[in-house]
Amino acid sequence: MPDFSIAIHGGAGTITPASMTPELEKAYKGALAKALDKGYRVLADGGTALDAVEIAVAELEDSHLFNAGRGSVFTKEGKHEMDAAIMCGKTLEAGAVAGVRSIRNPVTLTRAIMEHSDHVFMSGYGAEEFARKHGIAFEPEEYFYDSHRYKQWRDVRDTDVFMLDHTEERKFGTVGAVARDEAGNLAAATSTGGMTNKNFNRIGDTPIIGSGTYANNKTCAISCTGHGEYFIRAVVAYDVSCLMEYKGYTLQQACNLVVKEKLVKFGGEGGLIAVDAAGNLALPFNSEGMYRGSRTSNGDAKVAIYKG
C-alpha cells in the first residue's frame, strides 16, 4: 500500500492522436507533469492532501491549455464565469463557488470559503466580495484572454449554440485533483470555466458537492470531468462513494459501474479520477481520451491522454 497518492485530470472528451500535433501533445503532457509534481512534492514533504490538491489544481488553473482559471472559455457575453470546489475527507468540510469572474485561482477561493466562513457554496458578486475580504488574487480581463478560445466563441456568439469546451469537437474542460496523504486523509478539488457561449449563468457539476467533487476518508475522493448536466443528474461522485460504503465495492469496481455503465446508459460522457482510503487510484473514462496523471509513493508515476 502506498503511503500517499495523487491523481490529476485536465478534461475529457474526443481527444485522439489525430486531433493533436506533436507540439501540442508535448505541451499538454508537460503541463500535467508539472502540476502532478507540485502536488506530489507537498505529499512527499509530509503535507496534507488538502494542500496537495489545491496546489495541483492552482497550477492547472494558471495554464492557458485547460478550461479553468486563466484558460477559461468565453460566455455568451464574452466574459469568463468560473466554478470550483474543494472537500476534506477527514471532516467532510467543503467550499465551492459558481459564476465568479476575475479570480486568478478559484480553487484558492473555495479553500477560503471552507476555512473562513460558515458556508459551503457562494456565487457571483458575493463570492467575489468574500474573495476581496480574504486577500484572494484577482486578475484583469486580459489575463484570461486566449486567441484560440476567443475565435471559437466568436464563431458561435450570435447563435444559441453552446460548446462543451473550446473546440467544435467534444471536449469537456475541467481540471481536478485527488490525494491521500501520509496521515491517511483524503481530499478532492475541481475547477472549470464551463461551456463556450454558455448563457443564463449556467452552472455544471464541478462546484456541486457529491456530483462533480466529493471526499470522505471512509471511502474515496473524487473529481469529475464530463458533460455536467449528466453528472449532476447521476450524482456521480457520491454514487461511487455510496457503492463502496454500502455495497462493499472496491474503488475500481465502483468507478467502472458508474462511469462505464450507469452514465453510458443515459448518454453521459466523461470520466473521473479517484483515490481510496488505502491509496489506490482509479482514472476511468468513457470518452475517447482524458488528460490525466497519477503518482504514488511506491514510485508509480504516469501522464497520459488517450485510451490504452
Automatic annotation (TrEMBL):
Q: Where is the signal peptide?
A: none
A Pfam family that the UniProt record links to this protein? Asparaginase_2
Cite the InterPro entries for this sequence: Ntn_hydrolases_N, Peptidase_T2
Q: What is this protein called?
A: Isoaspartyl peptidase/L-asparaginase
Species of the source? Pontibacter aquaedesilientis
